[in-house]
Amino acid sequence: MKTNDTQETNVKPKNRLLRTFKKHKILFFLFLFFALGTNVFAWFVFNSIVSMNITGHVRAWDISIGEDGQTWDVNLKDLYPGMTTITEETKLSNNGESAANVELNVLEYKLFGETYSSVRESSDGKIYTPQELYDTLTSYYPFILTISTNANSVRAGEKITITVDCEWPYDGTRTNPDDDTSTPDGWDTYWGNKAYEYYETVGSSEKSLEIQIEIKTTQVK
Asked: Do residues 97 and 60 make contact, with C-beta atoms less than 8 angstroms apart?
């Protein structure tokens, strides 16, 4: 009798649950479909947002400067009054998808064994700015030196040329800017003697002028 009572007790709740399910099965399935539909919609929206965030195109940035990276070392061997013009050049290639602005800075130069720098102490104990080095190098000495590009920006897939020209004419017009009595001949003679003394000390195979130029590029927005 105990066994039968236990079985009857276990069956009765199951029967009640089954009858309840049959009675409300339409509402049950409606609730199930609603829940599934809500989850599917949420998943679709989530994935749409993620997809929009990760498929945006990022313009490639690929600048190539000669073979020396972001700096260009220019070495001029023979520097003396009456020399023929020396020209050194390098190419800046834009292999990316965005145009780039180009800026040139003189980081350091070494003339007849004496160093003038913006990144370390110079031979005279000073540290100069790149602009001071550029101004001095291009306007102070009797030789005429120019640093130029054929464009201030380079478009995607194109290249520009960066050039250094140097000449030291006999009939130069520059004088010592620190001496009001200086003459072009006297200024030429002073630096001509410096060149001669340097070559006598180190030999004619050594470089007269070494310039380190930073080639700075910024992406055009």
From this structure: yes
